[in-house]
From TrEMBL, chains A, B:
InterPro entries: ATP_PRibTrfase_cat, ATP_PRibTrfase_CS, ATP_PRibTrfase_HisG, ATP_PRibTrfase_HisG_short. GO terms for molecular function: ATP binding; ATP phosphoribosyltransferase activity. It is found in: Cytoplasm. This is ATP phosphoribosyltransferase. HAMAP family: HisG_Short (MF_01018). Heteromultimer composed of HisG and HisZ subunits. It catalyses: 1-(5-phospho-beta-D-ribosyl)-ATP + diphosphate = 5-phospho-alpha-D-ribose 1-diphosphate + ATP. Catalyzes the condensation of ATP and 5-phosphoribose 1-diphosphate to form N'-(5'-phosphoribosyl)-ATP (PR-ATP). Has a crucial role in the pathway because the rate of histidine biosynthesis seems to be controlled primarily by regulation of HisG enzymatic activity. Gene3D superfamilies: Periplasmic binding protein-like II. It is an enzyme of class 2 (transferase). It holds the Pfam family HisG. Residues 52-207 form the ATP phosphoribosyltransferase catalytic domain.
Length: 216, 216
């Protein structure tokens, strides 16, 4: 049976809406009282696993899910061995360098050599500063990255920005954008090549749906 | 000013109680409506940062906090450059190998060569299986690790067990314990050696308090 891996959190509502539009109903996951982590669509044609954002590509890469929906930001950071098939357009955000508004830094190159940059996107941050040939110390922080500059631990952060409210509330400003991100449909490369459980049909339906919505 | 890094979650209540017993009041962090991530004790002698469990040792290692309270499990996994000073005794749990109850495996060595083991404790899991000379594929999963065996992605998991309820609810059983864990008081090595802001006094008070409680 075709299995989807869906990310908990911000993308879930739109992902379920998208799958509903191609005839698959996993809306039980949106019920706050619902505790199961895997369900079968009422028509019995497909299954979905509800997993953490960072785990979607693991389930897809290891073949436990044929298809998955996850943010491009996660794919850039993890570089999993999965096929990236469709840009689903929702869940827009950007990965940016931010500093204290009161600091003198207005671009990445203004940062001091061997300064500190806090981020949970350690690979993306390292690539960015390597590409500028600016040696900085990347400090891995997995929650409340904005505490880095506030406590004085780091000169800058590299973090996801959607509305910018968290930055503003903490007196931080964006000085550079590494890349923009939206949600992506990914597939296990082997399942996709072998067209296991008619993956290709589902991918085509999702692609049509996304294109149709984009035209509205 | 002496700064503590405290972990959000299960350890917080006991950590705050312990610090209250040596005269430092950070109980505002327990108020669900409270949103600040750093506060100063009402007496003005110390500060506390409220951070994610996995970030405590980062703040301490980089010197932004002089002292921190974090689980031994995290220290074993991250191996940060911090001084481990006092076993605080609370927050007890163990890191264990678990499998499906219906599986034939009853010890780590029963697992098939090149089988899969899902864990967020990838370093601890790798060390354990390396020490047995059993080559397994460690699958990094950061949420709901129990889905590994349930979906058939992995033969086993390595995960923290406190009461064992999560395992039971998911039809899993523990077959081996890697180590037991409790919360630990850690310090920045340099601050500790230089006795910055009278760290040693605080450490002594905490040690006395823990010993006194243990005698009751």
């Amino acid at each position: 049976m075709l299995t989807f891996a869906l990310a908990k959190g911000g993308l879930l509502k739109d992902s379920i809406k998208l799958l509903q539009s191609i005839g698959l109903d996993f809306s039980a996951f949106l019920d706050p009282g619902f505790r199961q982590l895997q369900i079968t669509d009422p028509t019995g044609t497909a299954k979905a696993l509800l997993v953490r954002n960072g785990d979607v590509s693991v389930y897809v890469q290891y073949g436990q899910a044929h298809l998955g929906i996850v943010g491009y930001d996660v794919l850039r950071e993890q570089r999993p061995n999965v096929a990236q098939l469709v840009d689903l357009k929702y869940g827009g955000c950007r990965l940016s360098v931010a500093v204290k508004e009161s600091s003198p830094y207005r671009s990445s190159l203004d940062l001091p050599m061997h300064g500190r940059v806090a981020s949970k996107f350690v690979n993306c941050a390292r690539d960015h500063f390597d590409s500028l040939d600016l040696p900085v110390d990347i400090v891995p922080l997995y929650g409340s990255v904005e505490l880095g500059p506030i406590t004085g631990m780091s000169e800058a952060i590299v973090d996801l920005v959607a509305t910018g409210n968290t930055l503003r509330e903490n007196g931080l400003i964006e000085i550079e954008t590494l890349f923009y991100s939206t949600s992506r449909l990914i597939a296990n490369p082997l399942s996709y090549r072998l067209n296991t459980d008619q993956i290709a049909d589902y991918v085509a339906k999702i692609r049509d749906q996304v294109n149709a919505t984009a035209l509205v």
